[in-house]
Amino acid sequence: AKEQGRNHYRFYTSDMNERMTKQVELEKGLRKALERQELSVHYQPQVDLDSGRITGMEALLRWSHPELGNVSPAEFVPLAEENGMIVPIGEWILRKACLQNKEWLDAGLLPMRVAVNLSARQFQQQNLVEVVTRILDDTGMPAQYLDLEITESVAMFNEGLVIAKLHDLKSLGIKISIDDFGTGYSSLSYLKKFPIDSLKIDKSFVAHVMHDRDDAEIISMIISMARNLRFSVIAEGVENEEQLQFLRQQQCTEGQGYLFSKPMDPMELKPLLVKA
Ligand code: C2E
Ligand code: CA
Ligand code: CA
Ligand code: CA
After folding, report:
1. Which residues does the UniProt record annotate as the domain EAL (predicted)?
2. Angle (deg, nearest 10), helices 86-106 and 128-139
């Protein structure tokens, strides 16, 4: 038993070592990923729940690591936020997504928004508004078709500064969405203070809506609150018909999830898009 215990311990530490080695390797790799062109963007449709029409696309980072293969953004984005690489990477994906959407517009497809995630770290950058302005100018993408997704965590920093930046972005014509809504720690007061256009209901609520009454209550509360405050609502992680029916009943305006489409390479997606 003693022997076994020791073995067990050894396995445990080597597993921990392995994980730490992987983190270090990812961290190092991230610094090179951009210049080595290992990053790409997938797009996931956002759908109007009444008409079934695509209203927008969320741009999502993909990383193909030379040794480790595909690494999930859930794994590498937090590391990029820690080491600061999310700033150049975030700028890169914003430019790429604007270029892509402009290309779709020019190809005569039905105009839609492109949604880009903005990390709190990017939000703290002094020149954020200038960077966004320059990217819109360079790409020619009309600001009205850009949607920036921020999380409640941006509100943890200098609130006055955050509000001022949001107003500057809004005055360019950009839409602002709160991502992962309901999972952060902030109070509801910023819904009044921040100039936002929509709330994205976190997929953790949608996942259990059919068997957890609390999650169903939370969703219907978010939707009715959003309606009263005149925000649109996008439900994330819609995977089945039952969830869709529930969201429709609650008059949720839009949805995103595997039921409609997984995130796809733009080449794969284009044939599914509708001509204007
Ligand atoms: P998020 O912003 O909440 O993005 C939605 C995530 O849900 C995506 O995961 C998407 O692939 C996944 N998803 C979509 N439909 C479904 C569904 O029906 N069921 C389930 N279970 N999941 C679904 P992904 O692509 O792995 O991204 C994970 C997270 O990484 C994102 O969560 C976001 O926080 C971060 N991320 C991705 N790209 C970027 C980026 O360009 N910048 C920043 N700052 N963060 C990013
Ligand atoms: Ca998002
Ligand atoms: Ca989310
Ligand atoms: Ca998120």
Report:
1. 23-276
2. 30
Helix boundaries (H) for the chain: 2-33, 73-83, 86-106, 120-123, 128-139, 159-172, 189-193, 203-207, 213-228, 241-249, 266-269
Q: Which pTM was predicted?
A: 0.93
Q: Cα torsion at 151, 157, 160, 161 (round to 10°)? A: -80
**Token pair recorded at residue 214:** 């609390």
**Ligand 1 binding pocket includes 41 (Cβ within 6 Å):** no
Alpha carbon of 233 to ligand 3 centroid (Å): 13
Tokens of 133: 């302005």
Q: pLDDT (tens digit, 9 = 90+) per residue, 59-96?
A: 999 999 999 999 999 999 999 999 999 999 999 999 99
User: Is residue 29 lining ligand 1, measured as CB closer than 6 Å?
Assistant: no
- Read off the pLDDT of residues 134-181 as tens digits, 9 standing for 90 and up: 999 999 999 999 999 999 888 777 889 999 999 999 999 999 999 999
Mean pLDDT of 226-249: 96
Q: Which two tokens stand for residue 106?
A: 């020019």
pLDDT at 10: 56
Atom 29, ligand 1: residue with shortest CA distance: 74
Euclidean distance between the first and the last CA atom of the chain, given in angstroms as a whole number: 71
Average pLDDT over residues 177-204: 88
What pLDDT, on a 0 to 100 scale, did the predictor assign at position 275? 82
Query: Residue 99 and residue 109: Cα distance in Å, rounded?
Result: 14
**CA geometry: angle 158, 159, 161, nearest 5 deg:** 70
d(CA 216, CA 132): 37
Please tell me which residue, 221 or 8, carries the higher pLDDT value.
221
